[in-house]
Amino acid sequence: MSALSNNNWSRRSIFRAAAGMAAAGTLAACGSNNGRGGGSGSGEQLTQYFHAYGEAGTEQAIKRYAAAYKKANVSTNWITGNNFESALFAALLTSKAPDVFEFHPQLQMVKSGQVADLSDIIDPVKDDFNPADIKSHTVDGKIYGVRMIDDPQFFYYRKSMLEKAKVDVPTTLEELVEAAAKLTTNKVKGVFLGNDFTAIQNVLIFSAGAETIDANNKIGYHTDGVVEGLTQLRKLFTSGNVLLDAPTDFWDPSSLNQGLCAIQWGGMWSMPAMQKALGDDLGIFPFPKIGSSGKQSVYNGGWSMFVNAKGKNVDAAKEYVKWLWIDQKKYQEDWATSYGFHIPPRTSIAASATKLKSGLPAEGVKLFTDYGHFDNISYDQTMQTAFAEVLASSVRKNGNPEAALDTCDKKVNVELKKLFG
Amino acid sequence: MSTTTTRGVAQPAPAKVSKTRPRRGLRGNPTLNFWLFTGPFLFGLAIFVFVPIGWSVWLSFFDARYTVTPSHFTGFENYKQILTNSEFPDSLLTFTVFAAFIVPTTWALSLGLALLVNRLRFMRAFFRSVFFLPTAVSYVAAALIWKMSIFSGVRFGLANTVLGWFGVDNIAYLSNPSPPWYWLVIVSLRLWIQSGFYMILFLAALQNIPAELYEAAAIDGAKPGWQTFRHITLPQLRATSTAVILLLLVAAYQAFDEFFNIVGQKATWAQTPLMELYKTALGTSQDYGAGSAGAVILSLLICLVTLLQGKFMGFGRGEDK
Fold it and tell me: Model's pTM, two decimal places?
């Protein structure tokens, strides 16, 4: 006889247990982390997807904004981990697809009809946006996303460490390689470019005086300057003066804050945390120029808000996006400056953002203005992945840069053919 | 003449069901019983396995980017793309080499552990649990511990701390492919997490070997140790070994979690076939056509390897053959 049969399991007790479990499940569904924004709105139910920002308070802020919207009940899916893109794309194929989501401008998403035309909500305020942001979201005269934040990326450095090693701020890649050697000690590495170097893959192209994709939608990155940049990066990689396998990647300020390196590539979002940890012992500079035709560059990352064109509530979603990312200037400024630092894409908001008007944040804004490069909507994720493999092959694995670029060209040309015929 | 009588002795009760009358209801309808018990599982299998497989094969002949309901038929174009213009073939080659190493190594280690635990006279359950427990650990959690705590490239990492005591500089185990220290990280993790499970299979098989065989061998003059192991134990484990090797082979080709979390996608080395397919289909490229073509190729390859292994090792044959 089984132990189970010794219990007094009656039909009634089983039903009672089942009812209890159902009630518990219902209560659990009403619990803390169900992704809802706590909106008090009525009518339409909208879902928005966000990747997990590292800065404290961001998740609460996004849910607070959503809760303030009264015309719909907006729930927020805050996706942690490093697979936001995968989770988003997989969801977009299902009936559980988000109505609204953040991402980067991608021509393929426009061509496949995944994102809705937002021209009608942006046109009235188009002139108040950074023109480069408008351009990077425009296809055939239609605008497909609202820029939420611009995220300039540049080098941070410890002033005291450079002074002690008698190193000037590098303006060329050769100088950066030399500086890394002088700054490296038995405890501190000279420079941190992210664990796999892909954080600098676009700015490498720009600093070599090239473009990712040119104006004719042809490959623009395969130049002598880029080859020279790859060669010098290989030299830096093998020098032992670059930080590798750090516990956190470039997007986190820990490597510089904890004294693991003297110079770190990072985003402007890290500036408040770095200032808090290092005080005035902090400086910034753009990515150094590469070769004679190169120029110093700052890569502008950032995030934009899109509406799922295949969603069930496209009009309601557009109305929400307009309300939050066009009408609610206070929320936009709060989002850009209260957590990490970002540059508001609206000129009027950027002009009034007092936190960005002085000191290091102002320097960051100036670097963005003087050296900033924006995404090209035609340079899609597949192409970026192909170029990431160039860095892996020729910088981290001692492959021939020309051969790696040739391999990349084949993949990018297949992609360009699919996009432009 | 018999003097015995049946009077007063309880007779067995007559069978309730007459031989001439068929059973009625559930017990009497084998077809209904069959569908009742297997139906839900077959239904789940069809919905979650066969339909996706069929759909994947169908997608592999279409231009299916950013959609799983495509309309543009492209024939074998996706197969051509995945075999000539991607890292997928390299990953297959890499993982054939990986399988050639990890399968015999895990087999030997788990068999060794099983022999060790089987010989223990006390605390056998304790050691069996100790070796088996890693199996319960998530690959993702283990990968993050290996990557961030043990084999971190900075001075805080456990391995680098120990090396530092001997004056060895910090090693970047994962970012730098030469020398390929990343294999040390991956292989050590895989052995730690897998061996316990296969040890349990071998342990069960070892305990099923009749003691009479060893007694007979001893009477015939077989020396305990290697001679007995080679001529008695190993042949008796043949069926289990075949199954273990088959499972290990499939697991090697299907490797994903620890590689994804340790090496990452942004490398051109140690990319498993599934990672390449993930990048193609479920990653940022969203090319479900090419990804499905790769999945079909990988499935066929696993079937082929399994059949070949079965042919050489005699999968399904008993110990007595």
Answer: 0.79
